[in-house]
Each structure stands twice: as C-alpha cells, then as structure tokens.
Amino acid sequence: MHGACDLRIGLRRRPVEDMTKYYVAGVTARGGKYRIGGKYEDGVMKVRIRDLGTYTVAVDTVPPVITPRKTKPQWGTYGEKIIFKAKDKETGINTYRVRLTGKYALFGKPNSISGNLVCELDPKHVEKGGKHVVEMTVTDGCGNRTTEQFDFVW
C-alpha cells in the first residue's frame, strides 16, 4: 500500500458492554496479537491501517501491573532513586502519573528498552529524613487503570 486506508470490522457479539474495552489488533503469522487501535462506532470498529494483513477485534479488561524494581526499604538508600516497572499485556501503557507525598513527581524513562520509570530523589523537592508516600496511577490503551501506594523513609 502506498498510503493509509480505513478498515472497518463489524461486531456480531459483544461479550463486554463497555465499548471502550475493544480494540483492533493485528494478527502475526504465529497467531500472536498486537494493538493497532481503533474506535467503536455504529456497530463497527474503525481504524486506519498502512499494511495489508490479518486483523481482528480484541478485548482488554485487565489493568496494568505496577512493580517496584527495588524493595521499598532500599529506595533512597542506593543511588537515591525510585524505580518502577509498569506493564500491560494487551494494549500497552498509555499514561502514567505519580504523586510523591501529595505532590506531582517527575518520572522518566532513561532507557526505553527496559521500560523502567525512574525518579531521582532531590532534597530540593523532597524533604529528607521523613516518611513519604508514592502513589502511581497507570492507564492502558483501553482505559483500564491501576493505582498503588508505597511508603518509604528517606
């Protein structure tokens, strides 16, 4: 194909009532799926594609998983970093938001291969010598959300 085109897949059955949980997936030669995207409209899933292939409609109702990369007591002890891994099997991580003791905290991905979310603890922004709470909210491509809180002393 020389450009993008519209793809529409009609839905005969709807095992999940919430239409935001549906997405169009490409199917690999071995039967695996990968997210393309799409929106539900008038009984069909609509998406723009750029490649010929096999496509299907899939459902994602499972929220992402948040895992601390170091045990909580070690945060701030080694390298003064808080490190999380956020994963989602179906549609991938869409957004993440972190609050550190009630204030927005800047987390970044210094290495896109590992996918770790890292925050450098800075005494200018985080009071040293006290108990802190990290609240992380992660949302996937279909709007499934996980929020977890972790306590630590720094």
Describe the structure.
The chain is mainly β and 154 residues long. It is built from no helices and 13 strands. It has strands at residues 5-10, 22-27, 33-37, 39-41, 44-49, 54-59, 65-68, 81-87, 93-100, 103-104, 116-120, 131-140, 145-153. The strands form four sheets. Strands 10-9-12-13 form a four-stranded antiparallel sheet, with no helix packed on it. A three-stranded antiparallel sheet has the order 1-5-4, with no helix packed on it. It has a three-stranded antiparallel sheet with strand order 3-2-6, with no helix packed on it. The chain is elongated and about 60 Å long. The model has no long low-confidence stretch (mean pLDDT 87).
- Calculate the terminal CA-CA distance, rounded to whole Å: 56 Å
The count of strands amounts to 13
Ranges where pLDDT stays below 50 over 5 or more residues in a row are none
H/E element string?
EEEEEEEEEEEEE
Taken as a percent bin, the fraction of beta residues is over 45%
Count every helix, treating DSSP H or I runs of 4 or more residues as helices. 0
Query: What summary fits the major beta sheet?
Result: 4 strands, antiparallel
Q: Structural class given helices, strands, pairing?
A: mainly beta
Largest beta sheet: strand ordering:
10-9-12-13
Shape: elongated
- What is the C-alpha radius of gyration, as a whole number of Å? 20 Å
Helix content: under 10%
Brief digest:
Helix content is 0%, strand content 50%. With 154 residues, it is mainly beta. 20% of the residues are buried.
Write the layout of secondary structure elements.
Layout: E1 5-10, E2 22-27, E3 33-37, E4 39-41, E5 44-49, E6 54-59, E7 65-68, E8 81-87, E9 93-100, E10 103-104, E11 116-120, E12 131-140, E13 145-153
Antiparallel strand pairs: 1-5, 2-3, 2-6, 4-5, 7-8, 8-11, 9-10, 9-12, 12-13
